[in-house]
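Below is the record:
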Amino acid sequence: MSETVPKEIMKRGGISSHLASLKEESSFNPDIDERYISPMSARVALEDLKSFSKIGRASDLARFYKTSAGEYGEGDLFLGGSVPQTRSVAKKHQNLELREVEKLFNSPFHEVRLCAAIILNLQFKAAKKIKDRKRIFDFYLKQVRAERVNSWDIVDVSAPWMGVYLTEVEDPMPLLIKLSKSKS
C-alpha cells in the first residue's frame, strides 16, 4: 500500500499527525509539489534523497528539530534520511547549476535544503576564481533572505566556506552585522 503526503500536509505544520497516521515504514513515500522540481538534475537529487526515507526516523527528526507549533523549527518536514546519506547525495550532485540548486532550496523537506547547502559548499571549495566564489556567496545570501536557510544545522554546514569568502572582501563587517540580526 502506497501512502502519499496530501497537499494540506505540504503546508508548514501538520506533518507530525500525518506521520503518526502512517502504519508501515515501507509505506512512507512522500510526494513532492512538482512546481519546484524540474525534470532535470534537481529531480534526480530529490529521488536519491527520497530513497533514504524512513518514517520512524522522520518522526524522530521532527521531534529533535522542535517542529511543533511555537518551537524554533515549526513546520519543517523531514524525509528521514541521515546526514551522511545527504552528504553522499550532495557529492554525487555537486555540479548542479545554481538554478537547480535553488529548486532544492525551495523544498519543504529539511534534508533537501541541507543537501542544497552542502552542494554550495562543494562548489565553493572547487571554485578557483573570486568571481565564482562571489556568485556562490551571493546566491547563498539570496537563500538566507528567502528564509530557506532556516535551521542551525544548515547554517553550520554552510558557515565554514561562506566565512572563507568574507576574508576575501574589503570590509565584511556591515554584512556580518546584518547576518547576525537575521532569523537564521
Notes: The radius of gyration is 17 Å. Residues 1-39 have pLDDT under 50 and may be disordered.
